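User: I've been trying to design a sequence by hand for this structure and keep getting stuck. Would you show me what you'd pick, starting by listing the structure so we're on the same page?

Assistant: Good idea, let's start from the same input. This is the structure you sent:
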């Protein structure tokens, strides 16, 4: 099938269920390290096995190697007597992290603030609402903006749930056993609605305007698996593309809502990073990897077109690659050796946060936070339990197009 621009595209994937439904003054910044930009040939064919020609990261600083860079900030400098208050999110965003059972923030000037006392909780994962006023403390708890903790109704190990857009009043996730797409009130998990529009849903995400959902799974139209668009209550489902063989993960919209990005893992070991643009029914390939996996896709909530993912073999997530408006193709982020990396989230201004823990460490082990910005890597803070960017909601456009032929 051809899209409106006449570009032939073929997608061969299958999806896996990935969610379960249960009830003072800034210190002087250290030298940073820049990576060598790589080039990746774009392709609209998802069957391509060409590997991206991203080059190895190189250190350009003569003062320190990437492994020796000191952290810009230290947990030793956290104010011990600081009161905790969920202050408004600054326009430039802030890096937030969990340390010793408190939720902290550091802004771009180096100012620390305690956002919340987690009351004995030390989660290894956090995710902010679209407005940055509430936060998931692990997948099973919401910390409300009034300071109260409420249960989400989802299992603690489920990291596939997503906030509703644009205000974060609800959460959605597919049930791993039934494949039903479940909506829950973020403040009252007993308010639960089945919003399924497929026979089985394996991944789902809200459009930034909040009136639509894009999801992957097995359709109810008898045509097998695919990626679908429907209203936020599951009405008027439309197949955007068909899927055969493999897995899809990491569905995430760009902030304007014009396009979404996802990962496609083929059975033969090839993994591709795709971006689908709704107004043109156009599928583009940002990167292709053969013999290794790409996981952990995160897109920016502030800068359209900024996306990052980790590449490696199994548990050896040994490099982070990204595409952004200023990177001119896919580039590799310079990071320390002997570490395993997790892309966390993006701050405004194309600033990517990445977690780095020692290779072989446990998944819940404390890690160091690094930042990529303007082509350079900098160590931000060491030894935190969890971290994430906190950003205000960016402008978006309503989805008022009629999807065309799609792909597949």
């Amino acid at each position: 099938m051809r899209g409106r621009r006449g570009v032939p595209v073929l997608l061969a994937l299958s999806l896996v269920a990935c969610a379960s439904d249960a009830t003072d003054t800034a210190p002087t910044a250290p030298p940073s390290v820049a990576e060598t930009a790589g080039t990746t040939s774009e392709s609209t064919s998802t069957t391509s096995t060409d590997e991206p020609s991203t080059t190895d990261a190189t250190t350009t600083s003569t003062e320190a190697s990437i492994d020796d860079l000191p952290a810009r900030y230290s947990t030793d400098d956290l104010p011990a007597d600081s009161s905790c208050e969920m202050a408004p999110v600054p326009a430039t965003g802030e890096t937030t992290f969990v340390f010793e059972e408190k939720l902290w923030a550091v802004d771009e000037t180096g100012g620390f603030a305690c956002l919340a006392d987690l009351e004995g909780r030390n989660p290894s994962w956090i995710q902010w609402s679209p407005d940055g006023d509430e936060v998931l403390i692990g997948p099973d708890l919401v910390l409300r903006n009034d300071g109260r903790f409420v249960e989400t109704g989802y299992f603690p190990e489920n990291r596939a749930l997503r906030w509703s857009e644009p205000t974060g009043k609800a959460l959605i996730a597919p049930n791993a056993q039934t494949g039903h797409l479940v909506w829950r009130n973020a403040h009252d998990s007993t308010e639960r609605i089945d919003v399924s529009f497929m026979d089985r849903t394996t991944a789902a995400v809200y459009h930034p305007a909040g009136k639509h959902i894009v999801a992957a799974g097995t359709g109810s139209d008898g045509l097998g698996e695919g990626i679908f668009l429907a209203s936020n209550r599951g009405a008027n489902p439309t197949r955007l593309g068909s899927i055969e063989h493999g897995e899809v993960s990491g569905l995430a919209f760009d902030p304007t809502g014009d396009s979404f990005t996802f990962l496609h893992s083929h059975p033969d070991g090839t993994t591709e990073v795709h971006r689908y643009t709704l107004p043109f029914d156009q599928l583009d390939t940002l990167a292709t990897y053969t013999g290794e996996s790409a996981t952990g896709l995160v897109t920016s909530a502030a800068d359209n077109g900024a996306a990052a993912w980790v590449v490696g073999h199994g548990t050896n997530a040994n490099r982070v690659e990204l595409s952004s408006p200023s990177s001119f193709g896919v580039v590799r982020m310079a990071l320390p050796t002997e570490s395993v990396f997790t892309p966390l989230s993006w701050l405004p201004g194309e600033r990517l946060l990445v977690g780095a823990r020692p290779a072989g460490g446990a998944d819940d082990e404390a890690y160091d936070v690094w930042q990529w910005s303007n082509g350079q890597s900098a160590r931000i803070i060491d030894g935190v339990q969890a971290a994430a960017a906190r950003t205000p909601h960016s402008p978006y456009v309503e989805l008022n197009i009629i999807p065309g032929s799609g792909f597949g």
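That's my pick for every position. To get oriented when you compare it with your attempt: The radius of gyration is 21 Å. Confidence is low (pLDDT under 50) at residues 1-32, 34-63.
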